[in-house]
Amino acid sequence: MFRSVRGPAVVWGGIVAVGLAVAVIFSTASRPVAAQDKPQDRAGSAPQPGKAADTKDITLDQAHAALAAAQKKADELHIKQDIAIVDAGGNLKAFARMDGAWLGSIDIAQKKARTARYFDMPSGEIGKLSQPGKPLYMIEISNGGLITFPGGVPIKTQDDVIIGAIGVSGSTVENDQACAEAGASAVK
Amino acid sequence: MFRSVRGPAVVWGGIVAVGLAVAVIFSTASRPVAAQDKPQDRAGSAPQPGKAADTKDITLDQAHAALAAAQKKADELHIKQDIAIVDAGGNLKAFARMDGAWLGSIDIAQKKARTARYFDMPSGEIGKLSQPGKPLYMIEISNGGLITFPGGVPIKTQDDVIIGAIGVSGSTVENDQACAEAGASAVK
Amino acid sequence: MFRSVRGPAVVWGGIVAVGLAVAVIFSTASRPVAAQDKPQDRAGSAPQPGKAADTKDITLDQAHAALAAAQKKADELHIKQDIAIVDAGGNLKAFARMDGAWLGSIDIAQKKARTARYFDMPSGEIGKLSQPGKPLYMIEISNGGLITFPGGVPIKTQDDVIIGAIGVSGSTVENDQACAEAGASAVK
Amino acid sequence: MFRSVRGPAVVWGGIVAVGLAVAVIFSTASRPVAAQDKPQDRAGSAPQPGKAADTKDITLDQAHAALAAAQKKADELHIKQDIAIVDAGGNLKAFARMDGAWLGSIDIAQKKARTARYFDMPSGEIGKLSQPGKPLYMIEISNGGLITFPGGVPIKTQDDVIIGAIGVSGSTVENDQACAEAGASAVK
Q: Which of A6, A68, C135, C145 is deepest in the core (most CB within 10 A)?
């Protein structure tokens, strides 16, 4: 649906298509878990607290499985990667830097993971919308710094609940994305 | 009035149109808070030393009304939003994150509200001027981070005094803007 | 168990007592929720991801109930407060600044709430351990800034699962703490 | 072991003892990375221009061994820990947060590890010198934030070359230090 915004063949479908694309992305993105997610009349009396929402979160075992799968993919591609896992709250859960991987990717891997969890979509999807002239131009300045090119992917349960995200950095964005997807797929 | 500063083949709507837009935006934008802030007064009479300016500021009741109206609009649109209200000084007054709304929008909603108050115009108006080649290029880097796409709107009294701003984030920029306008309209 | 570390009646029970106290705090603090919280043999084969942890999180309705209760307490005490609620992940959920409350407390209320959630205990407990010569001296420099005096309190479900925290700032630490406890108590 | 530095019963060993302690710490602390880093070489012979220094650095396998040993110790102590490993350059190499461990310890574990490598001594040794009135007062403000209480330990090869550091946070400083030492000892 979205085309690459980098390289020689950049083609945007025009304002209407972009507007549609934005609507699709933003409406199909999986939403976090909240059980009692209903509006409620607050007029008149003191607010009623109700019950807490039932949610899910990634475990360290799951994080290690994602790290191992991403690293295995990197080995297959003969590349060195920095790999970060954040939990449902966007907080760092696990991290590994393969021997020889870039130092600059320590921060980028973490920012990709957070970006993916902060907006519940692959980091690269945000990047398509943050180019000059696009709806989310300069969103990267927010949240202490976002990374909006590929390599960040939400981690979901089998029933599609987002429990965290993985961010991979150290190679081309295509390779980073492939490793991130391999990592996310290892968690069910 | 302003000319493009970058690239040989940059084609925008034309220097004249952009110049007009800039001129219109900057001349029609409501100017800061003070009730007695009329150009002719400033120009015509000497300042009265020792007398402070009479100002107006948003109350928590008004902020809650704006939050509730923005949330109601979000419910109608079946979306989940982060909503922030800042006062006349640009300082956080109230905030609410609807259950399931993006974590990354916590910061963006606040930055949109501040951007709208810092320049007394909708955040998206700034974004038109901050594109590459435009007069305010990279203004987002200032003030600890601005957000210059739609979703931030000044809040005014009936006699057009700006008393704060609302910032909404969590959906498309069109939806964010619609919710922000609904919120701002709830305050008279 | 712990006495105030400020004011004329500061009394520490001595090194042994403090050591004990530290142990008690750190061992009795309620721990977050993690269902599959077991060590596991990782040698030999690829790590097994297992299942996600079942957790709970605060809802906006609950956050509003906490805000309202804290504000009601502030009204009774004839004080003006800034009140912040964070979720289980330490992310801002709701905020309100009462009319006339300190601007400087916007940040402090949020930092108190985060501190309480980051260590799953009242913020003031950390402050007892971070004094010069104490075990956690200068911990405040971490996490982008902690506030370790009273006014931050975890919010728990009836079965003692921590689902967020409340931070209150704007008056004496005793009043701040009283309002925070009132807010936390409103959520069951 | 540590005495209060405030109040009526402040007892320090005196300027001479403190001075001695400082001298001892700074002279006995293991010095940086380079394998051939012997004082007599530096003092005795002229530097050889054009020849880079031979150094050693921790591998990801070693980092994982340290993580596993620290986690094993934490399991034995029935505590939940955040564990960070940095390399010889002070850059993050690996990280794991045990299920249920404090969110606030994500940052502290990393800062402890960096502090230990930045000064090539256990983090707690710095803390003895950074108390009010001591030679390194407020050193915590440097380097983007240091943590100077126990829990950070250099990681060395068998021939005493420092190749990184481990930082552990999540329990008492005594437990944190025990886990950090267990982790560092797993690397030879």
A: C135
